[in-house]
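Shipment paperwork, digital attachment
Item: protein structure file
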Amino acid sequence: MARHPSLYFTDGSLTIKAMDGSKTLYNVYRGSLAEQSVLFAGMLSLPNPTIPAIGITENSKKWFENAIKLGLAGTTDENAIEIPAQFKAAEIEVFLEFIWSNPKPDLATACGILKISHFLICSVGIAYARHHLDDNSELGPVQRMSLGFNYFFADWITKAFDELMGVTINDISEEDERIMGWPAYRALAKVQAKVLDARLNLALDRIPDVNHCNWCNNLGYCKGEWAKMWTSSEGILGALLKDELSGAEVMEKLSSYPRGGMNVECHMRTCAGLQDTAEKVSIFREEEGLVDAAVEELLRSAGIPSAL
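Attachment content:
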């Protein structure tokens, strides 16, 4: 065993020990830790420790019950309260530093605070870590999705799934597949296939009608030029299949695609007429509905309340 050089306070009243192999000892202030952690507050409610009624995970409950059974008081190095080996000494350290000094965390530090805070039911630590991870550009979608499932963050799962929709399924490594989990990987693969099918259907079989102006003198030619723009590799079909834009984004940039020999007024009227019609909702928003449905099913299967 080794006392931590800065988190073993000589006047501390609660000794805890990392069980990850380092056997690091920490001596901290009982009241401060109990104030931040619902789990520690229950454990330290002597002489009758009380297990929290809500917010406790199965792992936390087992640890709580075992610690009480062993009668560890945490008053000396020898009877220190043991933190399970699944938590590294470095993670315990950043959590304790957060409790006493509130440092600005990097990615690894914030993840460590989140992990320990969730186990110990420390809502302040969870909120603090979430705040620093929400917009952290270093947190990739695969890791964000994994954290979302681990800690029941529906919005993180939704955000990660949306980002991964832009990644070809064959470009996701086996390691990333393992991290995100088979259910999420399978859902992503299925939705990507459905979206591709929807885009092909949109580009080839559901070409909107031309809204001709009153002085269009060649309706057939104008309609042909519109269809050519819609199905060419430089037009709608190309943008959709090259995954440059989603259906909704194509709609917003529709007027910027080359119109060929199509009548200028017909082109403007047709593009403008599609902006606020039901056709935009039923066609261009179709893939968004597929994604939303897949995420909702993932959340339901995991027992996580929907973010919508």
